[in-house]
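A protein record in our archive is deliberately plain, so that people and models can read it alike. The record that follows is passed on verbatim for readers who wish to inspect the format.
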Amino acid sequence: MRTITNINDGWKFIRQDEEQARNIFYDDGNWENVNIPHTWNAIDGACGQEYYKGACWYRKEFTVDSSLKGNKVYLEFNGSNSITDVYVNGQYMGQHRGGYSTFRFDVTEAIEYGKNNILSVKVDNTIVDDVYPLVADFTFYGGIYRDVNLIVVHPVHFDLLDYGSKGIYIIQDEVSKEQASLTIKTKVVNTSIEDMKVRLWAEILDANGYSVSYTAKEVTIPQGETITVEAPIVIDHPNLWHGRENPYIYEAKVLITSFNDTIDEVTIPFGVRFFKIDPENGFFLNGEHLPLKGVSRHQDRKDKGWAISKQDEIEDMELIKEIGANSIRLAHYQHDQFFYELCDKEGMVVWAEIPFISVMSQTDLDGTNAKQQMIELIRQNFNHPSIMFWGIQNEIQIGGDRPETRKVVKELNELTKKEDPTRLTTMANVTFVQDTDEYNYITDVVGYNKYYGWYTGKVEDFPEWLDRYHETNPQVGLCISEYGAEGIVQYHSSQPKVKDYTEEYHALYHEKVWKIFEKRPFLWATYVWNMFDFGANNRDEGGVKGRNNKGLITYDRKIKKDAFYMYKAHWSDEKFVHIASKRFVDRTDDVITVKVYSNCNTVTLFVNGNTFQSKTDDEKVFVFENVPLQEGITEIKVISNEDGIILEDKAVFNKVANPNTSYEAPEEDKGEAVQNWFEMPDFSDVEIEEIEIPDGVFSTRSTFGEIVANEEAKAVLRKYFGNIDENPMFSMTLGMTVEQVAVMAKDIYTDQVMYLLNKELTKIKKPDTKK
C-alpha cells in the first residue's frame, strides 16, 4: 500500500553554489539549519534592492525502513523555484525546469534501506532564457518553498511520473441536473519483473460517505509498461457543485487490487458541474447566470516570500470569502495544491494559468518550457471542480509582435484543448492589443488588463472602450482580467486624484470602476488587481520599495484598505458598516465629508454622541457632507439597526492648524512621476509639423530594444527622457514599439512627444541600411 511521508523538517542550507555538496561525504556541518517551506529571498525579495538570484544548496538525511524493500520510492517536490537538480547518495536523479508545479523522481535504485540516505538539492532562481517567467512585475523568490514528500508504492501503482499528476483523471463527459456521465481514466505502471493481472475498482462516495456508484475492470499490465485504463461511471441525480452557494464534493476511491490485496489506492475529491459563457450575458453555472466577482492573488506575503504555511493560505481564503468574491484569478503561475483544494471546498470559480508572461524566449522558439508547464498545470489540477478556465498567457505581447510568439500562443491553446476539452481556454491581453487583433479569437474567451485611471487616462475611459469592443466583437466572451490603482494607507487627501497614492483615491477609483462594470452583463468576469499587496522588487514608488501596492489588503494581511469594504458592501451578504478615511486623522477643515461603506439599508451618523443625519442608499456608499469638526478631537460614530441587529463603527478626527505632511507621497512620486515604465515628460507647448517616416530609419514605429541598441538613437531617447533605459521596469518594453506604449499612455505619450521623437529619430538610419 502507498505511504506518503512528509520530510519538511531538518534540512541544511547554504546560500551559494557549492557543487561539491552533491557528494555523499560532503561536510555540511557549518550550513544553516532550515525547515521547508523555505526561500532565501524572504527579506531581500521585497526591499527594492537587487535580490539574490543564483544557485543555492539544500541537504537532508532520510531513511526508508527495511520492511519497504521491494517497493518503488519517489521523492516529491510540490514547488521549487526555478531550476532544481536532485542527488541521492551522490547519484544524479534529474532536473526540473520551472518553479511552480509538482515534480517527482524515482529514487528506488539510489537509496539504501534501513540506513541514512543523503539528499542533496541544488535550486537556482537565475533567470534563464528558456524557463518561464523571464520578465514580470513580481519577485521570483528562490527556494524549496512548498512541501517535500517521500512516497513509497507497490511496483504496480498509479503513475507518479505523469507530469506530477496523480495518474487518475475524472473526465466529465456530460453533466446535467439529471445525470453525470463520467469516465475514470487511470494510468497504471507495472515495474515488477512479470506481467500482472489486476482489477481496477472505482467507487464514488457522496459527502456523507455513502456509495452512489462504482465500476470495475480487469486488466493485464505487461512487465515494465504503463497502460491507460478508462472506465465509464454514472451518478444519477447528482448534487451539483454550484459555487459558493453549494460547493458539493464527491470522492472517487480508486483502487488496484490483486486477489485479496489492495496494492494501491488513491482518493480523489471532485465535484460535477456544467458551465458556459454567453458573449452577451456572461457566465452561467449549471444553467444559472452567475456574475463572477473576482480578485487576483499572488502567493507571497511579508517576510515570508513564497514560503508560506497552510494557515497563511487559509487566512487568504477567509479574507477572500469575507469580501464576497466568488471567483479568483490565481496569477501568474500554478499555485499550491492546498489552495486549489480550498477553492473547491469554498466554491470559488478559478482561472488557473502558467507564467507565459510579458516576454517570450529568444532561443526557445517552440515554447517547449511553456508547453511543459501547461501540461503540468492541467494534469496536476484536472480533478479540481473549481477550475473552469485555463490561462495560456498574460501580456505576452509586451515582448513585441513576433510571429513565433503568435505561433506558440496558438499551439498552447491547441495543446490545452487536447489535454482538457471540458474547460474553457482564456488569456489576458495587454492593453494595447487592438480590438480586432487575432489574439482576441484564439482562445475560447478572452480577458484584457486595463488600467484606465492609473497608468493612463481616467476611469471614465472604461465605458467607451468596453462598449466599442463589445460592438466590434459581439461573439467574443470578454472579461477584465486586471484593473487597479496603487493605494498606500500612509497617504491621504480630501481631494484625491489619479497617481497621488492616497487611500482615498484607491477607494474612489474602485467605486467608479465597479459602477461601470456592474452595468455591463456581457463581462463574464472582472478581477481586481490585486487582493493583496505583493513583492515586486523592481518597483520603487510612493516611498515604498520593492512592492506593488494595488492590493485591497496590505502585504502582511493586517490592514484592510477602504476599497476592501467598498467591494464587501457590493458583494457580501454579511451586514456591516465601515467609515472610510479613518486613518486620515489630522484635518485642517472646519467641516468634512464622511463616507461610509455598508450593505445595510439605512445608517445614522453621530458626531460626539449627537445624531447628525440618517441616510438610505442602494448604492452601498453613504456620503455625509458638512460634518463639523471641533477644535481638537471629534468622535464620529455610524450605526445601523436592522431587524434588531445593531452594527456600528467609530472614527476619531483631530482638527489641526497645519496639514500633516506625512499624509503626502514624496515629491518625486507625485502626479506624472508614477514609477512605471511609460513615464515621459510634458511638451504640450511644442508646435507639431508633419513628418515623413521613410523605410530604413528609426522612428516611433521602432521598438525600444532597437532604439537602445543603437547609440545615436538611444542618445535621442535620453536627450528628452533621461536614463529611462535604466529604469528596472524598462526591460518589459524592449519588444514594444513606442507607438504601442503610446496606446497605453496617451496622456504621457502626447502628440508633441511623438513628434519630437520622430523629428530626431528619422534622421538616423538603421544599421542594415548604412553604406
Notes: The first strand starts at residue 3 and ends at 6. The radius of gyration is 28 Å.
